Every structure is written in structure tokens, then in C-alpha cells.
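Entry 14. Ran structure prediction on the chain below.
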Amino acid sequence: MGPVRTALTVSLVVVATGCAGGDDSGRPSDPQTLGPASTTTLAFAAALCDAPPPEQRGTVEPDGLVELSGLAASRRHPGELYAHNDSGDVARLFVIDGTGRAVDEVTVAGVTPFDWEDLALHDDVLYVGDIGDNARARSEIVVARVAEADIRARDATATTIPLSYPDGPHDAEALMVDPVAEQLVVVTKEPAGTSGVYVTPLADPGALELVATLDLGVAELVTAGDISSDGALLALRTYGAVLLWERRAGEPIADALARDPCRAPSAREPQGEALALTADGYMTISEGEHPPVWAVTTAGGPTTGASAPGTSPGR
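Output, C-alpha cells:
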């Protein structure tokens, strides 16, 4: 499936220097224009834009994982993924393999969920985005931070990071960690289809800063996101699409999002709210009882920090 130009308007709220222009084909531009840290991932992004249709790897096995919203690929345990339900569940994380089979279920102490919506993994720490706000009434949202090693030891206790928007409450379902700028990134879900991109430093989180707006249209409400571990591939999913952006070396995230994304292959899912980048592509899963596990892959993918899913090693 070739890249399809997506109607997109981006407003940069903070204008950064050194923004390099790209072509407007929706396809990542020439790898030779990038710094060496990004060229491999750029070629990977281009290949994903032309990847084969999604392949069903299995179905989600745990009976309790019926409103799957957050998904992240483990880096310590090849082939395994972390997942959680959204609002209405207790503080627990599920571990599944790349076919959806149950590996573990872990209760997380130290936090009471309001509306968990997304997961992000960075430096062996899992960030859980309690960022949902359908009523747009929360004065603060929360990101819970849990060490991956503690999850695997079944002794998970979270520390919490309260965050506030500069312009009032928003509903959001996409949480990412930018490893280049060392920032938490929240992308809002807006009824009119214009999503805000907000950031705050990992070292001193608190007040979110609006750095860009994405006008994706009312048909493309953002429900999940992920960034490769080298920061060079940005991915957002909506109910109907997976959108990919390449990012040049040292470039602010807002500048990368100012270019047109490619529309990568995606499965038809009734309530698609989960996305995780993997070493050879990405995986998506919908809400529902025992939903399919979909994978989009391309040969020769870079090491994005996650291992190719599909099998679980002995534990």
C-alpha cells in the first residue's frame, strides 16, 4: 500500500530554528538529508509506508482486557507487550505476547486510575497516561511512572506526575516520550479534529506547553501514539488510520509534525485505541472481547528499542 497524502494543517506554536523542508508527497524524504542517527529509521519509515496489509497474529486472550487502550512493546523481554484497560478498571497492567496470549497480570500500587488511556516506555520505565477526560473537567491529569523491572517482579508501585494544561482541560488518549528532548508528549483528542501537541520536561514535569496543533479533521480523532527509541519515527493512530512522520536529527518534534505524514497500512477495527511501535513495524489492537492482534511489518527494520513480537521467550 503506497503512502496516501493526508489532509493536515499544522500550526507551530513555538517556532524553532533550523527547520528543514521536505517534499509534500507524504513519503519520508531522502535519507541523505538526515544526520547519521536518523537515516536508518528514516528508511524504515519509508518502507512502512509501503508495507503489506496488516497481518492478524492472534487474539487477545485475557478475559479482563476488554477495553484495551494502552499498548507498549517491552524492550527487556522480546516479543512481549504491556497493555491496560481505559476508564472503569482497577490499577493493573497486563503482559501479553505478540499473539495476544496471557503472560502476566500485575496490580500497580500507589495510584488510583481515573481514565488510563496510553502507555509509553523509556529507559526501562513505563509511563501510564491517566489523561482521559471525556467531560473536559479535570484541573489536572496524571502520568504514573513504574519501573519495568518492578512490573516483572510483581512488585509494582507507581510514582505520579500531575500535569496541567495552559489553556484549560482537554480529553487526550495519546501519551509519548520524546527521547531526544527528554520530554513527555500529550496529544489531545478534540471533537473538531484539531489536536493539541503538549510537552513537558521529564526532569521537571508539571505545566504542559502547547507546541503545535494538528488539524486532522473530524474523521481522524487521535487515540494513541508512539515514538521510536531513537526519536526519529513518530506515529499517531486514529480510529481509521496510522500516520507516520520522520524526524530529522536534532529537530524539535513540532517541526517534524509540520510535514505531511504518510498514511501507513491499518486494519479495520471497531474501536481502535492502541498502537505500539516494534522492532520491525507496529501493532494495533481494538477494544472488545478477545479482539484481533494486528501487525504491520517490513523486513530489515531498525532497532527501535522493542523486539519483534510474535513469540515469548521462557521466563
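Residues 1-7, 14-38, 300-315 have pLDDT under 50 and may be disordered. Will compare against last week's run tomorrow.
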